[in-house]
């Protein structure tokens, strides 16, 4: 690696892998040279001709000496196995979301990152969105005061049955490890903990295949309790149209709403706790200011996160999304599923051994079969063949 250029390999040429390659080929990322690609299906690499060195085995690519850094864009379980392999070899690693399927695998992956000189990042591109950056700044600055309630309705993930039938690894315990929580919502779960911290307990209701012929959850309502007594509700599904994406945050100094590309803050002039204790009127409410907070566009998204990864390697730039933080969104997803399956409130931190045992039981007992469209990717295999994805 020169001081100005990182030799990059991409493992997994599905939708995201090819999208990242397109961004690199369009010159949107500076300081990077794509030199190698890898997929267990050789035909997926045909479109690139002889531009890059081709591998069908990730282990071979990682040991080739051709790359300084790797992007892992494979089915979920192999994020762990390939990631451990790359980090152990001292290769800078950018892993797609979620960083692993369950908390125990997250811990294994994170434990493999022993060298602080090796950059380890996660593709949480929503952290580049100015709306969420601004809300986080307000929360962290204390301007909203102590939080009392968080509600996020994120139901604009509508997916047809054809979507699920189009990939053999999707929406199965063995292939994906979950449904809407593990595929669509890792970004929102990451933002939830990034902005507000982790809850102390979770009580969730997850419907298995309510709207689709799948064996995993496609409809979720979760109740969260935070250490300071604040509560939260997280609602998501892939079966609702038209959907909603509305984040509502209440604190001592009012309510912030993020919806339809806008941030609005109805700000209490007097803190609600102070007002309710000191006001002499029975039905009065604190006077408010109505504030529209400017935040335009969606930020740099995937391009910004990949550029940040490269800059961290070349110049020591601070990571937007350190991969170690990815365990939090996985723990939230696992806790919601575990709460629903055990019909109980789950106290955090989640017991990773208990959840892994439960997931392995689901996989072992699965009798689910589904028809897939011609040429769909085969169902993921939890064996060592994952290193070949």
Task: Please supply descriptive tags for the structure shown above.
30% helix; alpha/beta; single chain; disordered C terminus; globular
Q: Determine the strand fraction and express it as a percent band.
A: 15-25%
Query: Could you name the ranges where pLDDT drops below 50 across 5 or more consecutive residues?
Result: 371-389
The residue fraction in helices comes out at 25-40%
Q: How would you state the average pLDDT, rounded?
A: 93
Tally the helices.
11
Rg result: 22 Å
Structural class: alpha/beta
General shape: globular
Distance between the termini: 25 Å
Protein architecture, described:
The chain is α/β, with parallel strands linked by helices and 389 residues long. The protein is built from 11 helices and 15 strands. The strands form 2 sheets. Strands 14-13-12-11-7-10-9-8-15 form a 9-stranded mixed sheet. Strands 3-2-1-4-5-6 form a 6-stranded parallel sheet, with helices on both faces. A hairpin with a 2-residue loop joins strand 12 (254-259) and strand 13. Helix 3 (77-88) runs parallel beside helix 4, helix 5 runs parallel beside helix 7 (186-196) and helix 7 (186-196) crosses helix 10. It is globular. The protein starts with 5 loop residues before the first strand and ends in a 24-residue tail after the last helix.
Could you provide a short overview of the structure?
This protein has helices at residues 15-25, 58-62, 77-88, 103-111, 130-141, 161-165, 186-196, 272-278, 301-315, 326-342, 352-365, and strands at 6-11, 32-38, 53-55, 69-72, 92-95, 120-122, 147-154, 201-208, 217-225, 231-237, 245-251, 254-259, 262-268, 288-293, 346-347. With 389 residues, it is α/β, with parallel strands linked by helices.
